[in-house]
Specification:
279 residues; alpha/beta; Rossmann fold; 7-stranded parallel sheet; binds nicotinamide-adenine-dinucleotide; glucose 1-dehydrogenase [NAD(P)+] activity
């Protein structure tokens, strides 16, 4: 199928890499105009160069003025904004509560929470006026389990979920929908970058993440940016016209639970403890 976003204009933050880049590519293939915002200018510009329907603009999403400017750019260049995918993000090493301070708290909350809040604030007037719009925020499985992400990151991603519901209710009367995507483990540069590697090396390392996928979640495949992009496409398109205030875990079954021990199933540890043959 194609053309599911024909005539629509999208703003995608963090579109230079990973999930954002995969979403830019899918949205363009589905007929959207796309404004890409990122801080990796050369990479972002190279993604935009693949289509006359894409433009790149430098935007540090921790700065409200930059987020507003991205939305203004969509309206000036393409006449409207129909979709906002607040996706930009990064991870940091987790060294426990003792390592958290005012600076790290503000940094992580600005990047993951305030950025999406600024997006809602500045997309809202345009979307309300046209009586349509789809905003997709980016949470994470880290908002579900306590061991899926760093502490501050997990707090921010949890707050994104509640903010998404708050916005969905406030904007619904004008048929503006707000939903969140919750990626599981997706093979992108984010992990290498968090460990201090450069973008190119991080992307190369992400390509080998499939080898550990079956240790991480029930489906023994590595999640790719495209897997998230497909879900974001649904939330962005008219196919989801009756969906708002929801969050969508796309995680290979990670949040559904652990795979039982293949020898003896869920009762194996108890059977061992009781000295009984689990079969
Ligand atoms: N990869 C995963 O496993 C995973 C899981 C759950 C949630 N997420 C979330 O998905 C989103 C995308 O992550 P990804 O895995 O594609 O990572 P990625 O590193 O491949 O891409 C993130 C992009 O965001 C950009 N960015 C970072 N800080 C920015 C800023 N201040 N302003 C503008 N752009 C900025 C980066 O330059 C990069 O292009 C993030 O919000 C991340 O927290 C990822």
């Amino acid at each position: 199928m194609s053309g599911r976003l024909s005539g629509k204009t999208a703003v995608i933050t963090g579109g230079a890499s990973g999930i954002g880049r995969a979403t830019v590519e899918l949205f363009l293939a589905e007929g959207a105009n796309v404004v890409i915002g990122d801080v990796q200018d050369a990479l972002g510009a190279s993604v935009a160069q693949t289509s006359p329907n894409a433009v790149y603009q430098h935007a540090d999403v921790t700065r409200e003025a930059d987020v507003k400017a991205l939305i203004d750019a969509a309206v000036e260049r393409f006449g409207r904004i129909d979709i906002l995918f607040s996706n930009a993000g990064a991870a940091e090493r987790d060294e426990g509560f003792a390592s958290i301070d005012e600076a790290s708290f503000n940094r992580v909350m600005q990047l993951h929470l305030a950025s999406a809040l600024y997006g809602i604030k500045h997309a809202e007037p345009h979307m309300r006026a046209q009586k349509s719009g789809a905003i997709i925020t980016t949470s994470s499985v880290a908002a579900e389990g306590t061991t899926y992400g760093p502490i501050l990151y997990s707090i921010a991603k949890s707050a994104v979920l509640h903010m998404t519901r708050l916005a969905a209710v406030r904007l619904a009367a004008d048929k503006v929908r707000v939903n969140a995507i919750q990626p599981g483990l997706i093979a992108t540069a984010i992990f290498g970058r968090a460990l201090g590697l450069d973008q190119e090396t991080s992307e190369a390392k992400a390509a080998v993440m499939g080898s550990i996928a079956e240790l991480m979640q029930p489906l023994p495949v590595a999640g790719q940016g495209r897997d998230i992009a497909e879900a974001v496409l649904y939330l962005a398109s008219d196919a989801s016209r009756f969906v708002t205030g929801q969050s969508f875990c796309v995680d290979g079954g990670l949040t559904a639970g652990q795979v039982p021990n293949p020898e003896g199933g869920v009762f194996k540890p108890l059977a061992d403890l009781f000295g009984v043959d689990p079969a």
